[in-house]
Amino acid sequence: MNREENQEALTTSTKVEVLKNGPLLVYGTIEVKDKDGNTETKNKTTAFCRCSASGNKPYCDGSHIKAEFKD
Questions:
Q1: What is the CATH classification number for the domain harbouring 36?
Q2: What's the rounded Cα separation, in Å, for the pair 49 and 61?
Q3: What confidence tens digit (pLDDT) does each residue in 53-64 have?
Q4: What are phi and psi of 7, to 5 degrees?
Q5: Looking at the predicted structure, is the pLDDT value of residue 5 above 80?
Q6: Pairs from 62-71 (Cβ < 8 Å, separation ≥ 24)
Q7: Count of domains in the chain?
Q8: pLDDT digits (tens, 9 = 90+) for 9-66
């Protein structure tokens, strides 16, 4: 990997964080492919549902609070 490629890898890194009793947060630019094969590019922070109660799956819509999700 040359210096330019290494710098690009550093600036395009992705971080994943599991929030206690909440969603899975993904920081960075990601491409999400749905069950039909459609893709969507998400930037900055994306929250993914872990409780299965979201009305906007695969994304979190805050339903974990009403569902009293614990994990």
A1: 3.40.5
A2: 8
A3: 999 999 999 999
A4: -65, -40
A5: no
A6: 64/21, 64/22, 64/23, 69/21, 69/22, 70/21, 71/20, 71/21
A7: 1
A8: 555 689 999 999 999 999 999 999 999 999 999 999 999 999 999 999 999 999 999 9
